[in-house]
Amino acid sequence: MSFNIEQLRREFPLLGQEVNGKPLVYFDNAATTQKPKAVVERLMEYYYKENSNIHRGAHYLSQQATEAYENARETTRLYLNAAFSHEIIFSRGTTEAINLVASSFSKKFVNPGDEILISAMEHHSNIVPWQMACQERGAILKVIPMNERGELLMEEYEKLLSNNTRIVAVTHVSNALGTINPIEEIIALAHQKGIPVLIDGAQAVPHMKVDVQALDCDFYCFSGHKLYGPMGVGVLYGKEEWLQQMPPYQGGGEMIKEVRFSGTTYNELPFKFEAGTPNVGDVLGLEAALRFVSYLRHDEISAYENQLMQYGMEQLQTLENIRFIGTAEKKTSVISFIFNDIHPYDTGIILDKLGIAVRTGHHCAQPTMDFFEVPGTVRVSFAVYNTRQEIDILVEGLKKVRTLFG
Ligand code: C6P
Fold first, then answer.
1. Could you tell me if the CB of 31 is within 6 A of ligand 1?
2. Which domains are present in the chain?
3. Is 134 among the catalytic positions?
């Protein structure tokens, strides 16, 4: 392993605190990760020394901030291995990135009777924007089904791809189940019919290397805050050929070339899709996070987190009356479960009293919960700073839950 875990944990000051009189064990990383000093310090540096609006002022600070912002775009391009930096659009997060595509792509390419294909394990962010687009355009939403392990049924997917399908939108990794979807195959099959594919990468980017050119996806979205970066910033990667043809998502400053009362012409990429003052500070924080993750190396992160997950599964399996939700052959960093005789919320509350942070509930994936016929699950999600000792503490905590409620 290229990193020393104790040293690494010191980079995350928040992890050192006590919660409810116990050392914090933070297992809610799929909701948001904690931030290393490098990210917090980058934000402070920006606000102490560089803060200025960008692409506008002729003055020194504005020029510095503009350069830093555009450098961050280039860092993001390199991180995803996109062909051009103007294929990188900064957004508020995955949600906004998907809404942008759902709204703008549909206006141009989706007509009454057309179909939009999503999967049965999507986060609400990759369901609702498409429902809204279907409503607006008179299109039909189709859903790729999954099996009891939480794996997509690929034969069904192939059957659902039709001459009416205008776009496929699927998650790379399920936030509720941890399933890693076979997106290479999903993309290749859609492309055989000339259909573009959007990938929701919110839960993938923190755990694996993503190369958008190797994947050949048309759109890829992720949030900074799940990748050790700040909240309020995310990325939409889009192939130039699509972004060029799509109309702007929002109107305002920055996205225009010329505005007259008689009409407006739009700016070139990527600015056409970045209306208004951008979130400069958080984009720079995101850049620091990308550098941090690159320094740790993705192969090392994946190997370490996979060991943690395997150990977690082995240990949790020893508990009575436990049912795992999501047992795909290929999964990462998420263990979702319920005790058959205890409500997930009760489990979460007791764990919290013991200083252990997990997420309980439907995880913004209600159709997934409906499929498994559960009200919600207890979700343990890992990040690179978690340890086996923390898993042992969790297992002891869950034994206490069982004694209290079981
Ligand atoms: N999932 C979770 O606890 P935003 O909120 O825009 O940063 O990300 C939305 C989103 C989209 N897709 C997937 C697969 C996600 O997991 C999320 C966010 C969090 O699972 C908060 S609900």
1. yes
2. 5-27+298-405 (3.90.1150.10), 40-294 (3.40.640.10)
3. no
